[in-house]
Amino acid sequence: MELEDFTIPIVTAIGFISVLKSSVKFLRWVWVMFLRSPKNLNEYGSWAVVTGATDGIGKALAFELASKGLNLVLCSGKQIVEIIDKEIKGLDVGILVNNAGLAYPYPRFFLDVDLELMEDIFKVNMESATWMVLSVLPGMLRKKKGAILNIGSASSTIVPSYPLFTLYAATKAYLAMLSRSISVEYKHSGIDIQCQIPVFVATKMTKLKESSIFIASPETYSKASVRSIGYGQICTPYWAHSLQWFIANALPDTLLNWGILSYFVAVNKVAKLKESKKKAEQQKTVVDESN
Ligand SMILES: NC(=O)c1ccc[n+]([C@@H]2O[C@H](COP(=O)([O-])OP(=O)(O)OC[C@H]3O[C@@H](n4cnc5c(N)ncnc54)[C@H](OP(=O)(O)O)[C@@H]3O)[C@@H](O)[C@H]2O)c1
Fold first, then answer.
1. Domain 39-255+261-266: which topology?
2. In angstroms, rounded to a whole number, what is the distance separating the alpha carbons of residues 62 and 90?
């Protein structure tokens, strides 16, 4: 037999296998996004603790969890670590949602982030989230059930870098690794620990007012989020965000780095200009008033 006699069947078989693999992946994605039954969240316990529930994703998540019949402990602002231990003492806490998060008001270079904002970002995005896990995990371990949901960010996961939001993205990378690792430590003790990765959601943080297919409303996001609780260490629960992750993965890192940097540098310039105009106006008012 000649070599050519094998070429066509081999190429056909390779083609068939790769089409089959992609089809299985696609069907699995459809199942995960739209068809898989959500877990019965009441089985984890009768209470859920949600941080950063005054607005945005946290508020919508609180409503969604309440609609599933869970009792809620909501914490926001400085409450988080100070009073949470007292608040949850004796409660059958089944779910913790570490949602509170802080970013810069607008993109800025690393050296332009003032120390106070840096400290707040560390505190809210990493410290509070870690202490919250520390508060609820022992109780969950005693019952051998519980779910912890940490809200991460696409900035640390689906793109190779997130310049001009460096600290924010870095703290979210911490949260993703924390979730992955403690999930491995405690999965066998019945605790489901997960980091969810939103891309864009129309909230105060992003200053995006209109939602669309790719920019989820907090309500749409929270519905998808709650459906995914308990499934996997890292996930993107909303289907259009997952599609964006797929597209980002297909693009070269250099292109993404360049695109994100250029965009945020432009936004930074506009925001700085607005800030200096505002300052000048305020100074003018003070001078006028003192005359
Ligand atoms: N929106 C998006 O596109 C997007 C994308 C990726 C990830 N995320 C993540 O999703 C989570 C929710 O964000 P969001 O968009 O819903 O933002 P948001 O509308 O600004 O809400 C943020 C929440 O965090 C709380 N928070 C802010 N600073 C705090 C502080 N110093 N101490 C305690 N709590 C504080 C706020 O409570 P107070 O008002 O009481 O301070 C508020 O309830 C964050 O972790 C964020 O990083 C959002």
1. Rossmann fold (3.40.50)
2. 21
